[in-house]
Amino acid sequence: MKKQSLVAIIAGLLVAFSLPPWGWWPLAYVGVALFATCRPNSNRARFMFGTLFALAWLAPGMAWMWFLTAPGYVIAALLFSALHGIAAMITGAVTDQHKHRTVVGPLAHTLAEALRFSFPFGGVPLATLAISQAASPIVPIVRVGGPLLLTYVVLQIGFLLANLRDTEMPKRTMHAAIIAVVVVAVLPIAGSIAPHGHDIGRTLKIAAVQGGGPQGTLAINTNSRDVVVRHLDATKTITGGTASTDDQLDLVVWPENVIDVSSFSSSIERTEIAAEAARLNAPFLVGITEDFDNRFFTNAQVVVNTDGSLGDRYDKVRRVPFGEFVPMRGLLEAVGAPVDRIPRDAMAGIDTAILRAADTTIAVVISWEVFFAGRANEGVERGATLLVNPTNGSSYTGTILQTQQIASSRLRALETGRWLVQVSPTGFSAFVSPSGQVFDRTGVSEQRVITREVQLRSGRTIYSYLGNMPFILIMIASLLALLIAGRRTIRA
After folding, report:
1. Do 151 and 274 lie in a common domain?
2. Residue-wise over 29-59: b if at least 16 C-beta within 10 A, else e?
3. Rg (CA), the chain
4. Are 42 and 61 in the same domain?
5. At 330, is the secondary structure helix, strand, or coil?
6. Are residues 203 and 162 in the same domain?
7. Three-class SS of residue 488?
8. Which of 17, 137, 331, 419 has the lowest tally of Cβ within 10 angstroms?
């Protein structure tokens, strides 16, 4: 048992280090393969083995949560790891001798990931196998099946690699060659030729403003005015402002909640931004936080037009558990947990994730929402030609969350066939192309304005039409069929 525990930990750590910011994507396959080579012989041992594997993978990959709330980090890491413990038990329902085990394992663990994408606390889809593959050659497959299909492919390849040890040498060589061809050629080609939208013949010149400043800060310990001033200072370095100039902008984007006021419409900050919008002759998308009452606040992205009027507004729907709201707040307070760092909960929005600005429809996924493929796709379903991800990573020490967010932005751009603009007050800010390439990525804490002319796009990918549910249903049906077939074979 000690040897198996050590194998589980090493396998999990290999997967963890395939993730940003450390990672090298092939480590995910090695970690899964090592995990799949070990076959505990009891349900209890399988559960512990699967849980330990996932804990070694998720605890480092989700370490960013520690800086929000230590109890929330511990609860989430243990709970999500236990899902993979259950998946390992399900895999063990098919005996080691049965050929279907190599397929049952990936199905069970993919469904465990699908569950943690949405439950509990609304889901925490970070430190995922899909994120680990954002720079891999197989990532274009997300245009077909999104993050779940990519997750399944990684797990399936890992289990097939593990199965090579039970194969005779000539067959082993052949099987290894087939796996290599699938990874290097078949999947990338399939993803590349899948529908991925098209340019509509119009561009927008966009400036994303990163004000800079220190990392590892909390709103309760920060002078909100300082953040505004840094972004105003950065914005004032932008030149242009008349239609006759070559550097005329079409849109300026500020990050998530850089303005924290009681009421934005009557604030000095609105006046200041309106003046900049008039000077540059370009509308602004601005992240604001407003007071709602003593228990709640709002987090929204608002359009400020060139004449100073307020345009569309989108309030964030997906909130960060233990960051923007505290699940089980009453229980945690009763046992003395330190929830005072999040004194009020964000009020969840109910609107569709789109804004109208610069004479086009823009899909807006605020910060955390970029980790949820469905939020970005919702805007594309409503005709969005561009994705914008205003975010705020200044609360976190290190770059675990920020680098995983860049990777997630790459996935969302590929899945939707759209350009994506990510902008953060302290980094990272970047432009991401529909092919997943990252341009103009900023450094942490630097003050910088990045500007790029991007193509507006139309059309939809296969994944944009299908979403996750068809793949989840197919996987559930396949898993049940294989488990039944396996039990019949054993009885025979």
Report:
1. no
2. bbbbbbbbbbbbeeeebbbbbbbbbbbbbbb
3. 24
4. yes
5. helix
6. no
7. helix
8. 331
Verify that 188 and 152 share a domain, yes or no.
yes
Question: Which of 9, 19, 93, 22 is closest to 54 using CA atoms?
Answer: 9
**Which residue segment(s) compose the domain that 257 sits in?**
199-460
How far apart are the two ends of the chain, measured CA to CA in Å?
Answer: 31
In whole angstroms, give the CA distance from residue 354 to residue 384.
7
Please give the structure tokens belonging to residue 137: 């050659």
* H or E stretch at 491: helix 469-491
Sequence letter at residue 263: S
H-helix segments, 296-452: 329-334, 373-381, 400-416
* Together in a domain, 306 and 332: yes
Count of C-beta atoms within a 10 Å radius of residue 116:
23
Beta bridge partners, 422, equal 389, 430
Q: How far is CA 165 from the centre of its chain?
A: 35
Compute CA distances 172 → 28, 96, 135, 158, 438, whole Å: 21, 18, 28, 14, 38
Domain co-membership, 187 together with 267 = no
Cis link prior to 188 (omega < 30° from 0)?
no
User: Mean pLDDT, consecutive 10-residue segments, the chain of 492 residues?
Assistant: 88 97 93 92 92 97 84 86 95 65 90 93 92 95 95 92 70 60 68 88 97 79 86 93 68 96 95 97 97 87 97 94 76 65 82 94 97 94 97 85 96 98 95 97 95 97 95 93 71 52
The single residue listed with the structure tokens 């290894």 is 176
Q: Which of 232, 227, 225, 223 is nearest to 252 (CA)?
A: 232
How is the chain split among helix, strand and coil, in percent rounded to 5? 50, 15, 35
CB neighbours of residue 64 within 10 Å: 22
Task: List phi, psi (to 5°) of 52.
Answer: -65, -40
- What's the structural domain count of the chain? 2
Given a contact cutoff of 8 angstroms between Cβ atoms, the answer to whether 314 and 285 are in contact is no
**What proportion of the chain, given as a percentage, has pLDDT over 90?**
65
> d(Cα 307, Cα 285) in Å, to the nearest integer?
14
DSSP-derived secondary structure letter, 348: P
The Cα-based distances of 277 to 13, 179, 203, 237, 239 in angstroms read: 48, 54, 19, 13, 12
